[in-house]
Please model this.
Amino acid sequence: MFEFLFEYRGFIVGTIFIALIATVIWAILYGRNLIRTEKSDAVFGNPERALGGWHWVMTGVSAILIVWIYFSWDAARAFNPKAANELCQVGKLSSAINPIRSTFPLDDGFLKGTSLLVRENKQLNELADQVERLGFSDAEKSQAKETIDLMRKAIIGMTSPEYLDSATDAKFKEIVSRIDGLTAKLADQNYPGDPTAEQIAAAEKNPRWGDSGNEIPAAPASPRGYKFDAAAKEMKTITSDFSKIRNNNSNFLAQVEKLKGQIASLDTLVKASPGTDELLIANRADFVKGLTRVLRRVDDGNIFPPDALNNIQNALVKLDNEQKSQQGGLRYYDILMMPGGEIRAGSSSCSEQGSGRWLPKPSDTLRTFARISNPEIGYKGYPLLWYKMKPFGEMVDFIIPDFIASLVPGDYPRHDTNGIVTPNFKSKVRDFATGNFESFKVPMPSGHVWDSLLRVLAGLFFGIILGVPLGLFMGLSRFSKGFFDPLIELYRPVPPLAWAPLILTIFGIGDDGKIFLLFMVAFAIMVISARTGATGTHLSKIHAAHSLGATNRQILRKVILPNSLPEILTGIRIAIGVCWGTLVAAEMLAGTTGIGFVENVARKQSDYEIIWTTIIILGLLGLLFDLMMRWVIDKFIPWRGKG
Amino acid sequence: MKSMKKILGSLSIVALSASMATSASADVNVAYFLEWATPNQIAKVEKTYDKALGEKVNWVNFATGTAMTEAMLSGDIDIAFSQGLTPFVNAVNANAPIKLIGVAVAYGAGGDCVVSTKSGISKENATELEGKSIAVPLNTMSDYEMRLTLSTLGVDIKKVTLVDQEPADAAVSLVDGAVAMACGFGENSLSKMKEVGKSMLTIPEKTEAGITSFDIVSVTEKFAQENPEAVKTFMEVTAQANADFAKDQSKLAIIAGDAGLSVEKTKKQMAGFSFPSVEEQMSEYFSKDGKVASVLPFMGKMFATEAAPAKEDYSTVVDTSFLK
Model:
């Protein structure tokens, strides 16, 4: 229904974004102007100073929308819908470079070889410390120490440039020249040549950014895109060749072989005279295992002389600078318009990471909202808010208890030999009570929102009906205060969510459990507020009524109840808020319908658009209830705060 | 670009929280499940992983595979051990940069659908489930299993009321009689369910229906790119732990303690598990028309939504290079 709007979303969002910024600027100027020109006698602290100011309302709303549109990258998409596709190609290249890049101290941290060296030496030190504590014989001790020393030497052998063999060095040089070659190609305007027919076909098949979910079109579609895509493919082969290079100079290999022999002989030596202490035996075996593990990591040959890789690092820096300059304006667009995250290329697709991921774009969210609002689609086959034609009988069934049929004397009819059942009075009553009769149909609201709403209203209703009288009497009677106070004060401070698992176990997964939970929440709040209201009544008013001859009942109805109304209505306002909070959690624990259920299921599929839709629905409903309560308060107790 | 971006990003709280979440620590962070007994828990408790990797390994337990994915995307978790295939597929459909690198557990009885005896339903009259309720943690392996079970038995899933509950809660609902069938995983929950009911399908019947349930090892692409040796070592230690356990089960108590189960329940659960060796994984699961290649697209379509449509090709998210 709104699909045509979605078609032009770029233009619409862009216009709205600029309009919002203009609104903020205008409102600020208008506000300043107003301050200068307006004459007001109200002193500080006079509520009159807070009257008016609708331009600030507009500024506030606009500011929220600007932040949302900006951080969800909706503005970025509106002004440059192709940016994500190009950044995806850039992402492919950086993801291809990443394995080499992460071994160098380019971003942060140590050279990988350095951290490996530190790590292995640390472990060797720990092993050396253990030697004294393991109760080795002198021969064993000296052998163990010798092994550790040899291992240290092997590591030194890897780091000293004189042992680096020429073959490895040649491989490094080759990598450098290939990276340099790639840098030169990136700078070349004609690289990688015209796109092939396949590439063009793939580019044409690209969906638009965000057309289906959070999809970013992956196939390159612009000259810059083709360039980065081709460079990424080439870089991948360079990276995989680089990661195969091992420091296997002959000196090191010989040392490793010797070490293997040493450890094996140490192992046999240790096993030959095990001693008697079981713990010690295990610890000794662990010691030998520890040596083996360090050796296994060392013989990977990932440590090189400190300066051997400098050329590669320089080549990488050059490549990095070149690809940055090749990005051109795109880079600044990325920085300015797509804050708080990046577009990352994965093995199968590109994705928005950071705020772009979990903060869906307003235009997409609105579209999802419109889509699931369609009663034909809904969520999990159930509409959000719609109506359903229901037979009148169902309502009769709901209101009239079934047991009245059992009260009618006599038995239910049996079928006769022809298989015909003749209804009698008892069965007719039963049919009526269970709603089992032909009746006209009435439209009844149904859907996730309605179900949640009904639960909240039912919980509130019972909470108010039972809580207010009890609260008033607790304020007036010694017995009810003393008797109910401990009961209520014991359960009231417990967070409603703590009750939720228990209540769901007692009542099961139906509506009654959720309503009871909400009732508990509303009841406590209503009791407390009604009680505070009752005790807060001015004694002079009660005395005045009494001396005018009012009965107890009249005092209660005409003096105490009206005087506690402000407290009660504020209590209702609070109870509504807490009820919504509790409801969502209750529906998450056991849900078949309801807004909390929708949100919980969407969460499991990382469907952030639906999650935000539910959040917006909850916010709007909360606002609606609050506005209603404000209206009620204005209507029924206009004298509040003026007495 | 990055530093400038960082400065800009830190200007806002929104971006700040995002960047804080992505700052990964130097240790290796692994996600796992409680109540899910696997031999590598011996290696976990005995710190074999830490020693072999030379790094500190932080094990963080999760209640659902979805939560694992979320933690991986925010950079708090590098490797998810025994993630369900369903949350993985959901994440891949939503374009999350994670990879499948191995099979952790194959199970027939680890997850199950239990139908209550009170309801009088069995697989002969399974269509009576229509109009009744089923408790199941939606979008998990149990959900997948339930859907396949129902379609095997010819039950129309649209006529069934699905109640979204975690296995422990689902067990309570089944005991209370609020639902006719409950699907879930975890030995504590399942044995509670089986007190009042029995499995809908036996293990051979499940196999025949094509219900193959296996959990996987997944890893973030970034971690796999930057630390390939670490990932490889992790898989080696896991394979070694599985092989050791196959020979000698004397350390079962360690697994039980770590999984939070009693020894009997651990035994019972592990009897339904198999831990495929590297060779078995390569031949049975990762071969050209192996289980992974056939189940991934099937499941991808089953859980596809408007926002996260199924992928055309799932082979790109499978990487077996760390197994060799």
Observations:
- The two ends of chain B are 37 Å apart (CA to CA).
- Residues 8-25 of chain B have pLDDT under 50 and may be disordered.
- Chain B touches chain A through 67 residues (CB under 8 Å).
